[in-house]
Amino acid sequence: MNQHTNENSISFITCVNDDTLYDLCLRHLQSLSVPPHMKVELINIRDADSMASGYQAAMEDSDSKYKVYLHQDTFIINRSFIYDILHVFQQNDQLGMIGVIGAEEVPQSGIWWEASKKAGKVIEYRSTYNYLLFDEIDEIDETVKAVQALDGLLLATQYDVPWRKDIFNGWHLYDSSQCFEFRKKGYIVGIPHQKEPWVLHACGNEFDTDQYSYYLKKFLEEYSET
């Protein structure tokens, strides 16, 4: 684990198995405004055994204080994204991880999107565009809304917490798990105020229900007490 973190560096970390999508993802990253003192590192992980193991390897490899873990089909459309997340993190030392969409409280089912109170916003592309808008975060009252779980389409951190690749050795629930790991260490997990959606997620319609159910059971076994 890197003991020396570079506060003037931000890494964008992606597990890649589709270059067409990742090229688009990169094009959006390359058009972001970068503060003069910041270095941007783009890390792509190929042939990862799982999302958690790919992210863990990249995390150990990078000395950036700020890390953004994003899917290859996540396109950041807010050009001041880096400025915005630095502002949010630097205002709050307790804030460990932020995302763009998630659940204020994870329901007993363990499935975050079944929560009665969700927060954040994102533009999704399945077979058509869809604007998902949940509880607005009020800029005046709170720059960040604390939540229990975030969607893994984009997770940004200012601290390194190990990914639970021991349990989540696939492609589901690694995101909710990581939120619980951060919260166990006393950090806040949250969603910042987004004036307009920061992200377009070209997630498509594919979903492996069996795999999801398998990891959901593991998630509930590990975290239902927390």
SSE arrangement:
Blueprint: E1 6-16, H1 19-30, E2 39-46, H2 51-61, E3 64-70, E4 74-76, H3 81-91, E5 95-99, E6 101-103, E7 118-125, E8 129-133, E9 144-146, E10 149-150, E11 154-157, H4 174-184, E12 188-192, E13 199-201, H5 209-223
Parallel strand pairs: 1-2, 1-3, 5-12, 7-13
Antiparallel strand pairs: 3-11, 4-13, 5-11, 6-7, 6-10, 7-8, 9-12
CATH class: Alpha Beta
Overall helicity? 25-40%
Distance between the termini: 26 Å
Number of domains: 1
What's the alpha carbon Rg, rounded to whole Å?
16 Å
CATH-wise, what's the superfamily?
Answer: Spore Coat Polysaccharide Biosynthesis Protein SpsA, Chain A
Order of helices and strands: EHEHEEHEEEEEEEHEEH
Low-confidence stretches: none
Order of strands across the widest beta sheet? Answer: 2-1-3-11-5-12-9
Overall, the morphology is globular
Number of helices: 5
CATH fold-level topology: Spore Coat Polysaccharide Biosynthesis Protein SpsA, Chain A
Strand content: 25-35%
The mean pLDDT is 93
Structural class: alpha/beta
- CATH architecture grouping: Alpha-Beta Complex
Largest β-sheet summary: 7 strands, mixed
The strand count comes to: 13
